[in-house]
Amino acid sequence: MRLRILLMILCGLYFNTSSAQSVKFIKNPYQAKFRVFISNNPKQANQWIYKVTGPTDIRKPGEWYIVKNQQLFRDAVSLFKVDKKEEADIIVYYVSTRDSAKIFQ
């Protein structure tokens, strides 16, 4: 079941426009669309994410614009950060270069 959910997430992020790559971290886990664990270990992650500075900077899957003003970006995907990878729908590793960003399938 978790694998099916993960595949749906990956496909949704891959095939949607840049608005799907705009994400916002929220404090209420019940209102979040996905639970995210941010890893320091690249081998644990199923997504290597490069943070861009604006929504128009998104060029490919694996690039996220993390919304600062949630009122202006209501269509951004809502995420809740969890402390354990076992609780996560997505495991993310932040990369420092745009070319390193990718989503593993």
Please give a structural write-up.
This protein is of the alpha/beta class and 105 residues long. The chain has one domain. It is built from 2 helices and 7 strands; from the N terminus they run H-H-E-E-E-E-E-E-E. The chain has helices at 2-15, 18-21; strands spanning 22-25, 34-38, 47-51, 63-66, 77-81, 90-94, 102-103. A 6-stranded parallel β-barrel has the order 1-4-3-6-2-5. It is globular. The protein starts with a helix and ends with a strand. The model is unreliable at 13-19 (pLDDT under 50).
Estimated structural class? alpha/beta
N-to-C series of helices and strands: HHEEEEEEE
Q: List the strand order in the largest sheet.
A: 1-4-3-6-2-5
Q: Counting H and I runs of at least 4 residues, what is the number of helices? A: 2
Distance between the termini: 16 Å
For the secondary structure, the number of strands is 7
The biggest sheet, with number of strands, parallel, antiparallel or mixed sense and barrel status, is: 6 strands, parallel, barrel
How many domains make up the coordinates? 1
Inertia-based shape: globular
Instruction: Report the average pLDDT across residues.
Output: 85
Helix content: 10-25%
- Uncertain ranges: 13-19
Strand content: 25-35%
- Give Rg in angstroms: 13 Å
